[in-house]
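Can't paste images in this forum, so I'm doing it all in text. The chain is below; anyone willing to post the predicted structure tokens underneath?
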Amino acid sequence: MRNSFSRRDFLKTSSLAVAGAAVLPRLPLGNVEVPHLGIQLWSVRDDMGKDPAGTIKALAKMGYKEVEGFGYGEGKMFGMPYKDFVMLLKDNGISMPSSHVMFTSASYDASTKSLNDASKKAIDDAVSGGQKYIVCPYMADPDRLIIDKMIPVYQAAGEYANKAGIRFGYHNHNFEFEKRGPDNRLLIEWLLHEVDPKLMAMEMDIYWVRKAMHNPLDWFRLYPGRWELCHAKDMANTEKQDSIEVGDGVIDFNEIFKQSKLAGLKYYIIELENYVTTPMQGAERSLQGFKKLVF
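Text version of the structure:
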């Protein structure tokens, strides 16, 4: 498959995105000024499974004003109707600009070149809840082997989302930096080159980029303006390089976030996958660690 969008197209689209990011209202948070800061609820997944109302209340008390959801299915999130969950957030002074929803090869009908009804409903519900983004969090293992067939899926998701008034996005892990597909390109290159950048934002998970032994700044420079959201979790200085609370590891977030305008970053989202203490304590420690950043 040839590259569908030229380098010139990338730079044109990217310059618009960077310009948009530059005029966003910037909100002070300790020594750091960021337009949006939240937490991916996967960080406190066990707590959300046991007591979503209590967990949201506790996150609000910590100082979180935004969350990124996950686990949507059949019109529900965390066991409650989607609209009720959105109301729970609102009652606690929290908004949900983005959520993670899976889009796989099964989400798309190649004969009609359209999404299935379940995927359309997920997008429609996200719009009804006031979300700005609906993000595919992962590429299923079998789908990685057919990346050329996944491009139409993401393109269709982006087109439907765009018409509905929301932005489709993709969140990376480390496997996107492996070579796959008919022409042996990196999966991340397939995503960046073959899906119209006007239809798909990128959510950079900084930890996973580092885990793949790549430098986030290199990707900011190669594809400026494409990285509208990011996940911030640190990397432990151990052999396993587990994820750890922001500020407790080896990732130089100050150096990375100095280039936020180049990247097009608008939404900073704290995430934890492993815990030194408890998930809730980790969520609070990560927020405090983020506040100490000075950029």
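The longest strand covers residues 95-100. DSSP finds 13 helices and 18 strands in the chain.
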